[in-house]
Amino acid sequence: MTSTGKPRVFGAGLIALDLVISSDPQTPVRSWAGGTCGNVLSILAYLGWDAFPIARLNGDPASIRVRADMEHWGVRLDHACCAPTAHTPIIIQEIRRGRDGRPSHRFSWSCPRCGEWLPGFKAVTIEAADAVLPALEGASVFFLDRLSRATLNLAERASAEGAIVIFEPSGKGADKLFTEALRLAHIVKYSDQRLAEADTALESSSASIVEIQTLGERGLRYRHRLRRTWSDWLHLGAIAAPRLKDACGAGDWCTAGLIATIAARGQEGLSKLGAKELREGLRYGQALAAWSCGFEGARGGMYAVSREGFEEQVADLLSGRLKSLPEALVEAVPGVTINCPACPPPSRHRHTRRASRTRRRKAAA
User: Please, are residues 60 and 82 in contact by the beta-carbon 8 Å criterion?
Assistant: First the structure.
């Protein structure tokens, strides 16, 4: 805990601008801070934590929007603009509905206007990470979802300061860094669709105490060694979503819910955790994930429901009383226009011709 009385979480990984295109053509495009790390930290700030992203946000329009959105939810941006800064990653999420009415989403990393790749993730440098190291004292959690030498240096220092290291890989990546991350992490969580069973997490030299594999609509399975030896795999069925509009971001809600429940006291608290408390933390995370599916966008529910309404609905989900969600309007942010850094200025006509060529090329494909 800090002088504010709040537990602190630091995170290094994908912090992006999400441009969410609704399945309803009448709904304007919405822009929110996103990315796995960005979502987890924003949700934890919403849940009452001091959340500190470590990133390279510069002054481009995308970063201005990300900063404003995170600040709205109380995220601490002390280390969000580490030098050298870089363009903020932009991810386009298009929500679609199948013939059966079920939603799906498609991600795009290329500009719909000029056809160029949108900015991608760039890790903080070792020099920038070194400057952040002293701030990690007193942290309860360090979260990472992208690997680099600088990020692992931060995780190692945070662990030495007593923080729980939580690693949520997007894929295996570089074997050496991946193996080192598994050795450092106390909690490893991954999707069965992205990564096979992380056997190296079982090495005796690993710090891993909890391993979680999410299974989509089938829920999740997990194992732990809260009492030194590994348990068998344990299964938790999914909590049915009371309304299904978009499953994007559900895993981030599950992660944040688990952190909020079991990780406030860092490694000291984790060392005293019982199997029942771990299961309850995972169940709470699953309830948040189910609730989030009722809104478009990874964190759309945060903009549509009051905090009191959120707590009531999640409690009702856990008790089995909530069977449906009331319709809620999520307003678009007025006047927000985000341009791709590669696009020519709007005053020039070249982009119109180029976009037309791009559309024709995609149509032919």
Answer: no
